[in-house]
Amino acid sequence: MTQVSGQNSNKMTEDQFKAEGAFEDYFFLEEGKFKQTGNLSGEGTVSTQEGTWKITENKVIMTLQLGERKMDIDYTYELKENTLFLTRTSPDGNMKVIMACRKK
């Protein structure tokens, strides 16, 4: 995962994530269903969110059910060989997150 904020860039490799005990798994299921499980929320516990996903032009839009509310998370995607690159820019435009996802 790479985070870019202004002129600063912070990159964590898969091995660094594992060494810190961090993980995030995305499941793109049939019929547009989606599930993410991980421990990156900052709460120190593993949590799972479910929702839906769809592709619109060059974007993957994930709609997650978070308690009583739904939240759309838009990523620009690019598929290179067997890696899915998901890029998301914060609403204020100050930070960009780039994730490289591989099929298990």
Fold and architecture overview:
Helix content is 6%, strand content 62%. It starts with a strand and ends with a strand. The chain has a nine-stranded antiparallel β-sheet with strand order 2-1-9-8-7-6-5-4-3, with no helix packed on it. The chain has one helix at residues 14-19, and strands at 2-5, 8-11, 24-28, 33-38, 47-56, 59-66, 69-80, 83-89, 95-102. With 104 residues, the chain is mainly β. It is globular and about 35 Å long. The protein has one domain. It contains one helix and nine strands, in the order E-E-H-E-E-E-E-E-E-E.
Task: List the SSEs and their pairings.
Layout: E1 2-5, E2 8-11, H1 14-19, E3 24-28, E4 33-38, E5 47-56, E6 59-66, E7 69-80, E8 83-89, E9 95-102
Antiparallel strand pairs: 1-2, 1-9, 3-4, 4-5, 5-6, 6-7, 7-8, 8-9
**Count of DSSP strands:** 9
User: Could you give a short account of the major beta sheet?
Assistant: 9 strands, antiparallel
State the end-to-end distance.
Answer: 17 Å
The shape is globular
Structural class: mainly beta
Low-confidence stretches: none
What's the number of domains?
1
Fill in the keyword field for this structure.
6% helix, nine-stranded antiparallel sheet, 104 residues, 62% strand
Summarize the structure.
The chain is mostly beta strands.
